[in-house]
Structure formats: C-alpha cells, structure tokens
Amino acid sequence: MIDITDPAAGMVQLVIFTVDPARQQQVAVAVAATVEQTVAHRPGFLSATYHLSLDGTQILNYAQWASKKDFDAFVADQASQNTRAEFAALDGVRSTTGSAWCVHRTVTAGTAR
C-alpha cells in the first residue's frame, strides 16, 4: 500500500460538495455508495474518505490515487464523466468543486518539534 504521508507517493483529489443542509446525509450516502460500486474498482484508486461539515452545508471527499496518471485516466473516461454529472444533479447538491494535490509534508504528534 502506498504511504500517502510520503511526498513522493501518489496524489490526492479533494472534492467539495456544497449541499442543502437537510440533504447532507443523503447526498453523502449516495456519493459514497456510487464510488464504492464504480470508482473503487478503477486502476490506481486507493481510497475515498468523506467528511461532513458541522453546519451541514458541505461534504469533503478526500480521495487518494496511486498516481496522477491513474487519476487522469479516470477523469478522461466517459463513465467517470457521467458519474460526476450524476453527482452534480443529485437532489440537494448546489455545487461541486475538485482539485488535485500532492503531499508536501505530514506533521504528527510524534514528529512535532
């Protein structure tokens, strides 16, 4: 398994869904289920972790990929484009934004100076 705390390993895709607070839970469940059934089987996919804002207005998907090449292949695929369009059309989704990242540094309690 790739150590995502290693700056030389993999990439992270951060996706933020802005949602109606009354629909946050339902949107999160629907997105996670779709990712589990489809995206999780893509080459290079490592994980997706969902965070819910305490005010109910956002969902953050922290997705880990083995490489940018794997992620780019996923993004270019028509099925992936269709899935992302379906997410944007879910009841309660106001907007989605995504960005690609690499690890710069990890600080943990054991490494703090």
From TrEMBL:
InterPro entries: ABM_dom, Dimeric_a/b-barrel. Coiled coil: none annotated. Keywords: Monooxygenase, Oxidoreductase. It holds the Pfam family ABM. PROSITE patterns: ABM. Residues 11-100 form the ABM domain. GO terms for molecular function: monooxygenase activity. The keyword Oxidoreductase applies. This is Antibiotic biosynthesis monooxygenase. It comes from Mangrovihabitans endophyticus. The lineage of its organism: Bacteria, Bacillati, Actinomycetota, Actinomycetes, Micromonosporales.
